[in-house]
Request: fold
Amino acid sequence: MIFSLDLLTEAVIFGVLLGCFYAAVSIGLSVSFGLLDVPHVAHPAVMILGSYFTYLLANQGLDPILSGVILMPAFFVLGVLIYRFYYESFEKRGSEAGVRGLAFFFGLAFIIEIGLILTFGVDQRTVRAAYIGSSWELGDYRIPYRMLVAFGVALALTLALTIYLSKTFIGRAIKAVAQDQGALRLMGANPVRIKQWAFGIATAVSALAGAMVIVVGPVEPSMDRLYIGRTFCIVVLAGLGSMTGTLASGLILGISESIVLMFFGASWAPAVAFGLLLVVLGIRPQGLFGR
Amino acid sequence: MAAILEVNAVSKHFGGFTALSDVSIRVAAGERFGLIGPNGSGKTTLINCVSGSLRNDSGSIAFQGEEISRQPAYVRTRKGIARSFQVPRPFHTMTVLENLLVPTAYVRHLKDSEGEAQAMQILTDMGLAAKARAYAAELSQVELRKLELARAMASQPKLLISDEAMAGLSGSEVDEVLKILFDLNEKGITIIMIEHIMQAVMRFSQRVICLDAGKIICEGAPTEIVKNPDVQKAYLGA
Amino acid sequence: MKYWISVAVILVLTLGVALSPVNEYFFFAAYFVLTAIALSTAWNILGGYAGYVNFGTPAFFGVGAYTAVVLFKWLGAPLPVQIVAGAVMGGLLGFGVGLLTLRLRGIFFAIGTIAVIFIMETLMINWRYVGGATGLQLVRPPVSVPFDTYARMLFMVIAVVAVVAVSIARYVQDSWIGRGLRAIRDSEEAAECSGVPTLRLKLIACVISGGLMGAVGAPMPMYLSFIEPASTFSLNYTIAALGGSIIGGMSHWGGPIIGALVLSTLQQIITVTISGEVNVLVVGVLLVLFVVLAPEGVLGLFKRWLRSSK
Reply:
């Protein structure tokens, strides 16, 4: 292991960019699992589905990020449908939704993944854009533009969702639904419809996150597995449902992963998220920035 | 009379919310003790701390002179504290009889044959014997409440905490459950009754404490409690 | 008693088949089916009885497999020793993971177990002794009498492992542990207040379940004459164990047997006739269909049919 301050600085800079990106891919889960308490282990699979749709649109000459934005309404509807189905099949019945709800989402993730393999094959897919492939020279450091774009979009997305949840009426209702459904009913709001809307938003956000994933690097169908660790690690570390916590946790994970990548090599990097997740579960399951 | 339960300066917070602040109660052995208070006043939090479903942040809880506040719930049940749940939580994949066999096996380490005999006796006393082979889904509201009490009794407790066992029941059903509780008290079991319905708790209790916003606002005989202006204020919001 | 007679009959039949001149491919396929039955049965002890979803089947299975490889390479240990050691390591892993996450809600345990798969896989990828990412070719020792080929012997071995797994699951279900686990699944808080030491029981179930998965994994390297991290820690084992239990029915030890039998046989057929990807897709689709439409599994459907035909 070669240790130098230069390498460390580079790792940290890269880690900050990576971290914001990780926060953005987790923020949908922060809503669906963190706030709504839905055991959405298919979140990364839905996101990778977004990457592949982005790939299709980008092949038509569209900008990948723009493609992600275009996909958002369709994914919103997809999210509403998924939640509706989950609600009718499990949440409404109440008892034992634990095992079956989890099995449902796990099965769903599998179906999406295998569906992608059958449609696109197991080969890696990439998209093209002006900002993919070139780097910004900053003194001695080279920062890939694609990371900068993802960084910018991620920040904007996180900020937008934070504002949406704290400033708008429906956003506050979503936060209320997480805490006290009874109170919400008294206010005359229907918790199921609010949760359905929130799940739609979370899924729409995943479409854009999926676009970012394919901007940052090539995708393959089984990639969702790695992101199960990253996204759940961030959401749990953040303290369920905290948006600013999600950003902070994303940074923690991004920087740790980048340092491990730099000093120990690529074969150790995937374990960082999963290791951190286990440590958090064991020591501080309420997260660092918990409610 | 000797105290069976002593709660001393117990506090409990949830995040920034104070559910209990500096609550002390003393329940004598064999007493019928009432705990009242408006919704959200901390009644259920208090008994969750006593039964072990929650850990109190500060203060101490002694049962028969022994400090129990750091012990897990199952240990407290084995020492003689049993409770019913406000929202019934039956073991819904088991029959009524099997529900009672959980405590007979885990608290009293009885074989199923002995456990079944004793469980049937409890069910008979409570008028549930006919439903011994039924599942929770087939029970009425009042039968579910009785099952809660029966399961609690199957652990042969010294102290029974009844958490709103009468909420939502009709007048005659309330009388039925009250009679069960009186009978159990006759047999020497100390009973803490948490109730929102004032009437039932006033008829039952020898002594009542009223909680509001996590604090004890008054304590005394039922007749004094109803006249207390603080209680009237807490309940009526006047 | 009836159960033990059936067990004896099944084992004698298995031995008979192993010694008879059946096509070698049969043993190859039957090994997979028996592995699936044993894994589902093991999974069900925690997942079905107590309601705690373990996604980490490949982690426990893989730990058993790698334990076997290390013992074989280092000491040339015989197969029974490998299996026992695999079980011990699987049980230890179950204890560790359980201690870390079983105090929390089920969902946290579930994602914790996913994490363990990837951590184990990463460790093995970076461990040269067992071949790292590229894997390790293993030379099988000579086959012991009375078996003609190694595949036949392994078929017998995995049949014994499966029978042991089922017998343990059956014992747990009927014992005091089983009642406590059911109480936990129905209402953890009420169980604790009925005197059930919930954490301890969940840990016991997790150790037994993990140990059995480790035992099932141990003969796998010899079966393939090869070990490699990616396929050893494949999530396909997760979906097989989960699917077998849910499709068969989780409330009874017979459920996972039926589910795994149906599922893995179907998978074998699809793999041969269509493709390997489609077979996993079918498992996923069946899993979702059953979870939604027949939550009590084949056993539940059967019970309903019995009641309606009365």
Summary: The two ends of chain B are 38 Å apart (CA to CA).
